[in-house]
UniProtKB/TrEMBL annotation:
A single MF term (Gene Ontology): oxidoreductase activity
Name this polypeptide is given: Classical SDR family protein
PANTHER family linked to this entry: CHAIN DEHYDROGENASE, PUTATIVE (AFU_ORTHOLOGUE AFUA_5G01530)-RELATED, SHORT-CHAIN DEHYDROGENASE/REDUCTASE
Superkingdom of the source species: Bacteria
GO CC field: cytoplasm
Pfam families cross-referenced by the UniProt entry: adh_short (PF00106)
Organism this protein belongs to: Candidatus Planktophila vernalis
GO biological process, one term: secondary metabolic process
């Protein structure tokens, strides 16, 4: 199992769900965590809990805002001279039955938060990651965004397409950063989070544990899609 003590970790979407559960695990293991949240009240409440566990720094950031990734990268660089893990967890989902119900605007609106923000954070933080110790990037995707899932169902098309695109982005960054930064995608499972809804079969803590597992893989593993420590198909 990887020793996370002293690791410097940026977790987006740390104020709820998978990001919150993963933050708890890494802080208990002695990591230093900067965590973003889009809701100020919720982030303050989360910070109260997480700072009791370890070194947690909150950052208010809404990735629907085109300026947010640059502001987050600047804040991380102001605090640290290296970064060991970038966990791109923040995302949004709006359930609609198909493209016709979604209309034209939803894809445009959610592309930034679900794809481009992750890309920009990697772009802006790659030098800091290269200065880290066995640095890793984890892009939190979904089984709903696998190629097989797209073939099987046309529902929630924007969410599925953005997660499928995130898989492609993961592969391309992994190729560019091979031997320097490990880049992988994670399917945390269908969980009882704000995004997954109360009818999901899994608990948020399951997603936190799967984040721990993917970050514990051998550093040579890159450019792949994982459900915890089990490789799955993009």
């Amino acid at each position: 199992m990887t020793n996370f003590k002293g690791k410097r970790i940026l977790i987006t979407g740390a104020s709820r769900g998978v990001g919150f559960e993963a933050s708890k695990l890494f802080l208990k293991a002695g990591a230093h965590v900067i965590g973003t949240g889009r809701d100020e009240t919720r982030l303050k409440a989360t910070t109260t809990i997480l700072q009791q566990l370890g070194d947690f720094t909150p950052l208010l950031a809404d990735f629907d805002d085109a300026q947010a990734p640059a502001a987050v990268a600047q804040a991380v660089k102001a605090q640290w001279d290296s970064l060991d893990m970038l966990l791109n967890n923040a995302a949004v989902q709006t359930y609609k039955s198909d493209w016709m119900e979604e209309g034209l605007q939803l894809l445009n609106d959610q592309w930034r938060c679900n794809v481009f923000a992750q890309h920009e954070l990697i772009f802006r933080l790659q030098d800091l990651l290269k200065a880290g110790s066995e640095p890793r990037i984890v892009n939190v995707s979904s089984g709903a965004g696998s190629l097989q899932a797209l073939k099987e169902s046309p529902d929630m098309p924007t969410y599925r397409l953005t997660k499928y695109a995130l898989g492609g982005m993961t592969i391309l960054w992994a190729g560019l950063l091979k031997g320097q930064v490990a880049v992988n995608a994670l399917d945390p499972g269908w969980l009882k989070t704000d995004l997954g809804g109360p009818g999901a079969p899994g608990e948020p803590s399951d997603g936190g544990e799967r984040m721990w597992e993917i970050c514990s893989l051998d550093w040579s593993e890159t450019g792949k899609f994982w459900h915890g420590n089990q490789e799955i198909d993009f």
